[in-house]
Every structure is written in structure tokens, then in C-alpha cells.
Write a structure and sequence with these properties.
The chain is of the alpha/beta class. It has 16 helices and 22 strands. Bound molecules: alpha-D-glucopyranose.
Length: about 550
């Protein structure tokens, strides 16, 4: 049921990979590009369409590569630019696509531009960054890395001035008021696009421009720059995608779609914590509410929806009470918290209960948008809260039960991070090789879910309607696209639930269970009764 009239990303499933963590081909203890290439068939078999890789550029790695020292190279840990070209080719040969991070807002302080900027007031690079004599400007801008940074300004001895940074002080913000900076970043885009990359996940886009008296987020000038980049893309390339990382409310992210002339896609951040909330409380209300706050978006633009990623599970867009509830429920140990979030993986958050893990995924796939799966979550990997910052959710992928989980031949001490070997989540139990064999494994059930979702574009393209909203123990969504209707039933509780649904608008249609391949009776005028097991779900199509 391929949908020819829609751009590829509309009905795509994404897979987020951290190359460092995925597979080590040369035995140095760090994952690399050749390692990823050797696992492309695995990714293909998962049924996803597009890989998103975290930054691979030369970097001092003070923010795991989001601090870039050279936009035109590959970090030696990962390989070479030629390896990257091969990665693109091999990805495409398998009918997959690949997008990379584009870090626009800031560079590393090790970038030659910044080195020149701080040490030479005469050089053109001085104006590449945001310098000030005082640290009192832009006081209305919030601090994002609350646990580590006290101010968005840091004094630089060499320059004798303060520089502006929205993230770590090792990540000075570029000055987007400078047309040369804008041009530089356009050249960066061209470099990778010409190599064949399918697009970018644009990092931290709300913060490009600063203006006094504002929050320095989402400014009109920032949108104008992003629209320029999109226009450049449209004029010069085909079939590429730009995905916005704006950790904001849907009504704010909505502006990043423009009228379909800014980003193709944008992450939907605040639905994510509410999926955990809904399952944790056995209550669909948080989902009803956040979707009521989610505007329609222009044609051929798409939300990107996710359960987890490489960062902390952000709790910026919940109320104070909800945040406290989430922290108590999901991060009882202070080590599990970071900034305004939770630094844990999906599986431990959901009590390592396969029912809840699959329910969370099914819930995600029942919503409009294109889902992203974070590497390792498809096998139920655990985390390591003893590692610093967000590293606890970036541990080596668990391929099998051999030494280092099949991730690397290095001496275990030389791994960039230890493999998970706790009693409950040890790689000896949780790994790809054993799950491939087991038809009931999370991996195989995830593959099945992905396949069914992909085969039914109604999930990605259709509109939605909540049903049975008064019975909040269940989330009931009717998805509709052209003449296709699919009913998504999700039981958020640990009790069996009965639903009596008025489906008279679908009278005389036959009910087909998409996941079990079973056919039920025809819809009659009377309410249709469904029984859903604890934490279970069903997708029913009306044929
Ligand atoms: C984004 C990335 C995060 C990084 C930050 C600064 O939020 O997801 O990992 O630390 O940008 O680049």
C-alpha cells in the first residue's frame, strides 16, 4: 500500500543510532562507521526507513560530539570521510536513508573559528561569536543545562570579554546576525548533501538569534534564517528532509513548519512524558490533553514522535506537580535525574515489563507522526545510572552474549563505556542474537508492530478522533484516512477493561485485527463490546 503522493518522510519510521555505541569494527573499544555498516542489515530487518546518526565530526567530545571542532571531517574514532561516503552508499543500496545532526547554534571552543575569535580582535572571526563587555545582557534567556551552568555568559581571559552560550561553556554560540556565519553553515549543509546524505536533524534551532528583552528563543529573525536554509535546500536538492529539534510546546514548534516552507518535520516533545504518565497512572487524560494542544500542521509536514532518545527524558513541558510525580515515580533515586529530566532508558522506566514496553510503542504508533526508535530500545536494553551526564543511556549495543556483548573485540577495560551487566539487564540475557530466535521477544514483536504500522499509512497520514473519553483507563483512538478506518484500543491499567463503543458510523464493515490477523464480525447498530487485557492493545481495521 505504498503512498506515492506523499514525500517519503511522512510515513517513515526512524532509528536513532549513536555510532560510538553501536558496533566497533577495529577493536579500539569505540563504535565506528564500518561497524555501523556491518549492522545495516539488522537495521533494515527491523523495518525502519531512515537512520539518524548523532554527530560524527571531529570534536573534543565535551558534549559527546555536539561540540564540533570541524564541520567537514569525521572524528578519527569513527573513521574517515570515505568511510562515511561508503556508509551513505550502503545505506541507500538497502533502500534505507540516512540523516545526520546539523549543529547550527554553536561550535566547540576548540573550533579554529573560536580560537581565532577569542585571540584576534582584528580577525573576521571575532564577529562569528556573540561577545559582550558585560554578562548582564539577555537576562531573560533561561539556562538549559541547569545542573552544570550558572550563566549563559562565560568570561574568556584571552578576549577579555564574555561569550554567549546556551549549552555548556565549551560550546560558544555562533553569531547568526553575521551573514558570513549564515553562509558558512550553508556551505556545511552543501558538503554533506552533495555527498548524498538525505537530510538533517537540526539541533537546538530556537536559539540562533538573541535580542534584548526577549527569551532569545523562536525569534522572527531565527525563523527567517531557517527559511533561507530550506529555500536553499529546495532549490538545489530533491527528496531531502529537515527535522527541527525545538524542545517546546506544539504551538511554538508549529511556527517551525512555517507554511510548509521551513522544516519538513519537528519533534513533538511534550507528548513523550505524557505517554509514561498515562501508563504510570492508568489514565488517558494526559494524552487527550496534549493532543488538544497540538495544532494541525501544513500539508506534507510531519511530527516526529518518540519515547526516548540520547538525552534525558525532558520534563520541561509538564506542570510542577506533574514533574514531581514523574520524578517520584520514574526517578526515585536522585542519580536518575538530570537538569529538568530523567536520565533513564525506556525499559527500566517501564519496569522491564514487556507488556508496558509494547503498549508504549503501540501508543506512540497510534498517534499521528513519524516514530523514532532509539537504538537498543527495540531489545529492551537497560541503563547505567552510575555513568556521568547522559552517558548511562548511551552504553554499547548488546548484540550477543559473548565478551563485550559482541560490540567490540577490545579488552573490556578499553571500552568507551562498560556494557550493561546488571542482574536484570545483563547483555547475557538481553541481546539481539537471542531475541532473533524467540518469536515472542520484544525485538520480534517490535518488528511486527513496525511492519503493520508501515503497511497501513492511515497511522502516519490520517486524522484522529478520541473515543470513549470518559473511560480514561483506556486510550481509544479512531484513525481515519481516505476510506480506511482503524480503531486503536489501549488498556493503560493492570486490570482487564471492557469497552462498549458506538461504531454505528461504520455499520456493516467487517472488523479485522491487524496485529493478530483475525477477522471479527460486522459492525451493527448496537454498541460493539471489546475486552482488553491488562496493558494490552489492539488495532482494528474496518473493511
Ligand atoms: C541537543 C542535543 C543534546 C546536546 C545539545 C547541545 O539538545 O540533543 O544532546 O547536548 O543539543 O548541542
Amino acid at each position: 500500500m505504498a503512498e506515492k503522493n506523499h514525500p517519503w518522510y511522512m510515513n517513515a519510521v526512524f532509528y536513532e543510532v549513536h555510532i560510538r555505541a553501536f558496533c566497533d569494527s577495529d577493536g579500539d573499544g569505540k563504535g565506528d562507521i564500518q561497524g555501523l555498516i556491518s549492522k545495516l542489515d539488522y537495521i533494515k530487518d527491523l523495518g525502519v526507513d531512515c537512520i539518524w546518526i548523532l554527530p560524527i565530526y571531529p570534536s573534543p567530545l565535551r558534549d559527546d560530539g555536539y561540540d564540533i571542532a570541524d564541520y567537514y571531517g569525521v572524528h578519527p574514532d569513527y573513521g574517515t570521510v570515505d568511510d562515511f561516503k561508503q556508509l551513505i552508499e550502503e545505506t541507500h543500496q538497502r533502500g534505507l536513508r540516512i540523516i545526520a545532526d546539523l549543529v547550527l547554534n554553536h561550535t566547540s571552543d576548540q573550533h579554529p573559528w573560536f580560537q581565532e575569535s577569542r585571540s584576534n580582535p582584528e580577525s573576521k572571526y571575532r564577529d562569528y561569536y556573540v561577545w559582550s563587555e558585560t554578562d548582564q545582557k539577555y537576562r531573560d534567556a533561561r539556562i538549559i543545562f541547569l545542573d552544570t551552568e550558572k550563566s549563559n555568559w562565560t568570561y574568556d581571559e584571552k578576549a577579555g570579554m564574555y561569550f554567549w552560550h546556551r549549552f555548556y561553556s565549551s560550546q560558544p554560540d555562533l553569531n547568526y546576525d553575521n551573514p558570513e556565519v549564515r553562509r558558512e553553515m550553508r556551505n556545511v549543509m552543501d558538503f554533506w548533501l552533495e555527498m548524498g546524505i538525505d537530510g538533517f536533524r537540526a539541533d537546538a534551532v530556537p536559539y540562533l538569534i538573541e535580542r534584548e528583552g526577549t527569551s532569545c528563543e523562536n525569534l522572527a529573525e531565527t525563523h527567517a534564517i531557517l527559511k533561507e536554509y530550506r529555500q536553499h535546500l529546495d532549490i538545489n536538492y530533491e527528496d531531502k528532509v529537515l527535522l527541527a529539534e525545538a524542545n517546546q510546546w506544539p504551538l511554538d514548534v508549529w511556527h517551525y513548519f512555517g507554511n510548509g516552507e521551513e522544516f519538513h518535520m519537528g519533534f513533538h516533545f511534550p507528548v513523550m512524558p505524557r505517554i509514561y504518565m498515562a501508563i504510570g497512572k492508568g489514565d488517558a487524560t494526559p494524552i487527550h490533553w496534549i493532543m488538544s494542544q497540538t495544532p494541525e500542521i501544513p500539508e506534507n509536514t510531519q511530527w516526529c514522535i518518540f519515547l526516548r532518545n540520547h538525552d534525558e527524558l525532558t520534563l520541561e513541558m509538564v506542570t510542577e506537580d506533574e514533574r514531581q510525580w514523574m520524578w517520584n515515580k520514574f526517578a526515585p533515586d536522585p542519580r536518575m535525574r538530570l537538569n529538568l529530566g530523567i536520565r533513564r532508558r525506556l525499559t527500566p522506566l517501564l519496569d522491564n515489563d514487556p507488556r508496558k514496553i509494547l503498549l508504549a510503542n503501540a501508543l506512540l504508533y497510534s498517534l499521528p507522526g513519524a516514530p523514532i526508535i532509539y537504538y537498543g530500545d527495540e531489545i529492551g536494553m537497560g541503563d547505567n545510572i552510575w555513568l556521568f551526564d547522559r552517558n548511562g543511556v548511551r552504553t554499547p549495543m548488546q548484540w550477543d552474549d559473548s565478551l563485550n556483548a559482541g560490540f567490540s573485540d577490545a579488552d573490556p577495560e578499553d571500552l568507551y563505556a562498560p556494557v550493561i551487566n546488571s542482574e536484570e539487564y545483563s547483555y547475557k540475557k538481553v541481546n539481539v542474537a537471542s531475541q532473533i530466535q524467540d518469536p515472542d521477544s520484544i525485538l520480534n514483536k517490535m518488528r511486527h508492530l513496525i511492519a503493520v504500522r508501515k503497511a497501513n499509512p492511515v497511522f502516519a497520514l490520517g486524522n484522529y478522533e478520541f473515543r470513549s473519553e470518559e473511560k480514561t483507563e483506556c486510550l481509544v483512538i479512531l484513525r481515519h484516512y481516505k476510506d480506511v478506518n482503524v480503531l486503536c484500543l489501549m488498556n493503560l491499567t493492570d486490570q482487564k477493561q471492557t469497552l462498549n463503543l458506538d461504531l454505528s458510523a461504520l455499520i456493516n464493515k467487517r472488523m479485522v485485527d491487524l496485529l493478530k490477523y483475525e477477522t471479527y464480525g460486522m459492525v451493527q447498530t448496537d454498541p460493539v463490546k471489546f475486552e482488553v487485557d491488562p496493558f494490552d492493545f489492539a488495532w482494528i481495521r474496518f473493511d
